[in-house]
Amino acid sequence: MTLTSPDLDTDARVRANDRGHVFHSWSAQALIDPLPVAGGEGSTFWDYAGNSYLDFSSQLVNLNLGHQHPDLVAAIQRQAGELATIQPAMANDVRGELARRIAEVAPEGMSKVFFTNGGADANENAVRMARLVTGKRKVLAMYRSYHGNTSTAITLTGDPRRWANEPADASVVHFFGPYAYRSAFHSASEEEETARALEHLEQTIILEGASTIGAIILETVVGTNGVLVPPPGYLPGVRALCDKYGIVYIADEVMVGFGRIGEWFAVDAFDVVPDLITFAKGVNSGYVPLGGVVISDAIAAHFDTVAFPGGLTYSGHPLACAPGVATFEVFERDGILERVRDLGERVVGPRLREMAEKHPSVGEVRGRGLFWAIELVRDRETREPLVPFNAAGPAAAPMTAFAAACKKAGLWPFTHFNRVHVAPPLVITEEELVRGLDIIDEALTVADEAAAS
């Protein structure tokens, strides 16, 4: 269903209510002008003015099965008619079914699931589990990371959103992860980057005191802060360090779990088994808030006779779990994982590499599946970013102009700092995908002009 004609009266009403009464996240309230969205279907959404947009950000990289997927909508409707809600202390059919399905696709030896309301509280509870099991409080996290907006999660976060929220959890220490294009270790190859990044991490463990460190948390593929695919051997190396020093390895898969790179869990692509996996977003495409922690059998056993001191009123909410079960059915019926791998290897990767050859503002492209980044620079030799780190206002003008060009052509992009991320719904058609890449290709001429100025 699409909007057949502009509805400017409704547009004005929605804008007035929003501007008068809604307090938006991460924003200076008087400096924003949120788009009133009338509806969406598949990989497209539209406003009340009659404009439609290809959703190349999957909203917040959570809409894996697209807008208004009929199977997910029907699952919610059916569940609402049967049992709208029940407290988490009771057993529930869809909650248990979803937990079973998640455990079946998780790495071997991870058979329990603790449900939360989203990704931030999944990370909060994973850290709590690690601290309780090890008796050690300190947690290591990367500088280039985002783990959520709650107290410990925002402290774990490495990006600038942490700054204004400090101090929060004083037991968090940050370290440099691998980033070959802008190596902190002056590496000349992926092999060197892996070796030197692991050496840096081990030195951090030693200097901070392994006896004080309960967990290391990593986004399996760094999301908002760069779509940084770990080089070969890095994640297994982290696993080995955790085993050596008695540290719990937490894999944050809030963004990349459930098909984003063509795997149920992204760790499967890197030959590593963590102790805890956090998830949210793609588990049910965000149709109803849901997240959770997949727990190793060893950690779960710790709480067999010791109570876990944590819980949420809406943990495993039936209306959230029902579309989660439907998500598994859609993935299996429609071969979602296979099509994500195919589109990434055959369409997105080659096309982005062509753009890198064509546009002088493109420093590097990287990614996997339907999760890619185009890093924009002023100079390919010096790799100076097109806009400064954490740029805002006039300093961010080149990226703002690029995004505006995309929107004018009918594509809603995901931009962050000096990067363009390509993260459309996993159900996007090949024709839509090519059309969206065409729009980005054309919009990059704006970035080229900015780089040359």
UniProtKB/TrEMBL annotation:
Protein name stated in the entry: Aspartate aminotransferase family protein
Question: What GO annotations for molecular function exist for this entry?
Answer: pyridoxal phosphate binding; transaminase activity
Q: Which domain of life is it from?
A: Bacteria
InterPro entries tied to this protein:
Aminotrans_3, Aminotrans_3_PPA_site, PyrdxlP-dep_Trfase, PyrdxlP-dep_Trfase_major, PyrdxlP-dep_Trfase_small
Q: Which family does it belong to?
A: Belongs to the class-III pyridoxal-phosphate-dependent aminotransferase family.
Question: Which keywords are on file for this protein?
Answer: Pyridoxal phosphate
A GO-annotated cellular component:
cytosol
